[in-house]
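Reply to dn_fold:

You asked what the input looked like. This is it:
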Amino acid sequence: MTQITAAPPPPTSQNSSRAYVLGLLTLVYTFNHIDRQILLILIEPIKAELNISDGQIGLLTGFVFAAFYATFGIPIAMWADRGNRRNILAISLSLWSGMTALSGFALNYWQLLIARMGVGVGEAGGTPPATSIISDLYAPKERAFALGIYTAGIGLGVLAGFVIGGYVYKYFGWRAAFFVAGVPGLILAGIVRLTIREPKRGAIEQRSDDGQASSFGETLRFILGQTSFLWMLAGCCLICISANAFLAWTPSHLQRTYNVGPSDIAIPLGLLIGGVGSVGAILLGRVCDRLSARNLAWRPWMIAVCAAIALPFAWMFLQADTLNMAYAWNVVPSFIGLIYASIAYTASQELVGLRMRAFASAFMLFCLTLIGIGGGPSIVGYLSEYFAAKGNEAPLKSALEIMLGFNALSVVFLGMAGLTYARDAKRAAEAV
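and this is what came back:
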């Protein structure tokens, strides 16, 4: 059973150790997104060489990857709630890095598809054990900030992936870019295995853990009974559809609209999505922790406010007459674009019991991945083909405009999540 007991704060040496672990896990998450997003900057040359359509690209970047990522995520998370999270992370990192490198050998669409399936399987074992470890190192009052730092790995991965993809492609071709992105991850996996120690579950919250994980059915019933978790999940899924549609197709939109190549947009777009987005995730995570200390409802409400603010700027980004104006309009959406992920991870940890956390994270990721990552890019790909067949002069732009509706609807769901969040967090603190 989980119990609340008094305990002194962690010593400074432990704080230093946890900072190292957080930094290393953020680096792992960065590699996760380098290997995932490098494909995006290379879509146009891959499409030309392998002779594939926007619809096939949408499947490649969206549903197929997401289906394997989501399917394997839950059983791996159940394993993580019972086993050694560090080892699971190291194995997963090795798999997705190796499959990224193998993507460079693809001679046709189907070979590339199989390699990306492998990337999806490997990356399924990344976030659930990592967020569970972080939650055992950082108390609730600082957890959104810590997970904001971790989430910055998304932005850093996009930045590095775009830069590596754009410039390695320029000098050596798109195949070499996959090698450069994938091989270092194999080295990092060894570092994870050798330098991270498994933390004691619940110690940071002065909660004792009897070592018994809840069953799949018990965990799922508990999650489904958390009203705020469900509202928040629905809202984040809607944001994820829009966010991943733009992430996957923005490089192609810019290249087609302004007649530029991958290397021309690699650094500015990477700095926007990656650099500005990473800073936003960290700073807004800190703001969320401070607001939530007064009222936990600010966990979902923070995402809702950011989603509402992003809408007009994202619309103007699509209407920009010049490339530089497009970059300018994209600053605000980039700054606030990653906060939903860090707070979603935070919610998945504090709305469930100790040995439900990896599963809750995976369940959240299952829905976000299958619906958001799987749906967003795929929907845009097929809408683009549909509008093109109807004679639309800017079919990709029109498809992206439609995706903003999902962002708008998310605000309603996230507002509802805040109404019961504090009550559900209290219930979770008393759970096994």
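Strands lie at 3-4, 207-208.
Hope that clears it up.
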